[in-house]
């Protein structure tokens, strides 16, 4: 992908993943502006829809999208769109995927089985993607090659470890995606 340094480019990137994986937190750690968040408290109405077993302390959930912006250079700005993680909002994913150049797919290695529907959606929309393995404090740190194998990823799909609360590691996962996009388009 050639980017003319004299021309400004705005690139739409999706931050996706299953319910409670850290999408809102990731955008919050990366955005240079106050992120737009559409979070609401989890209520009894979500019973039977949202599985809170993997995130027992979760009190809010994204109901539309998150939005942030990150300037990488004078000529390249990333617009970050976070999708809601619940299956019932998958129609919104299709709308958000329009015009997106790629996706950073966040996964929780303790709940990899929840990532397969997300990967199916990203692939059905034809998006180039990279995997961000969100390492939660107090959990096992699995080798990335084991995560790759468990997710049945192709050898060329980038996989990076991150802690979405940490700007540095979140940025590295995003850079991994941007480098992958540049290699695919260029």
TrEMBL record:
UniProt keyword list: GTP-binding, Hydrolase, Nucleotide-binding
Keyword NADP attributed: no
Gene3D superfamilies: P-loop containing nucleotide triphosphate hydrolases
InterPro entries: Gliding_Motility_GTPase, Gpn, P-loop_NTPase
UniProt family annotation: Belongs to the GPN-loop GTPase family.
Name this protein carries in UniProt: ATP/GTP-binding protein
Native organism taxonomy: Bacteria, Bacillati, Actinomycetota, Actinomycetes, Kitasatosporales
């Amino acid at each position: 992908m050639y980017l003319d340094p004299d021309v400004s480019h705005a690139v739409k990137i999706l931050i996706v993943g299953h319910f409670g994986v850290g999408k809102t937190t990731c955008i919050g750690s990366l955005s240079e502006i106050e992120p737009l968040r559409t979070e609401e408290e989890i209520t009894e109405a979500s019973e039977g829809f949202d599985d809170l077993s993997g995130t027992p302390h979760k009190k809010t959930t994204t109901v539309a999208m998150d939005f942030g912006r990150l300037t990488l250079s004078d000529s390249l700005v990333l617009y970050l769109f976070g999708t809601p993680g619940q299956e019932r909002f998958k129609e919104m994913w299709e709308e958000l995927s329009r015009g997106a150049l790629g996706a950073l797919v966040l996964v929780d290695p303790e709940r990899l089985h929840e990532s397969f529907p997300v990967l199916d959606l990203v692939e059905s929309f034809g998006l180039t993607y990279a995997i961000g393995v969100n390492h939660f404090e107090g959990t096992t740190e699995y080798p990335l090659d084991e995560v790759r194998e468990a997710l049945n990823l192709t050898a060329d799909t980038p996989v990076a470890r991150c802690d979405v609360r940490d700007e540095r590691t979140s940025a590295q996962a995003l850079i991994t995606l941007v480098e992958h996009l540049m290699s695919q388009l260029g």
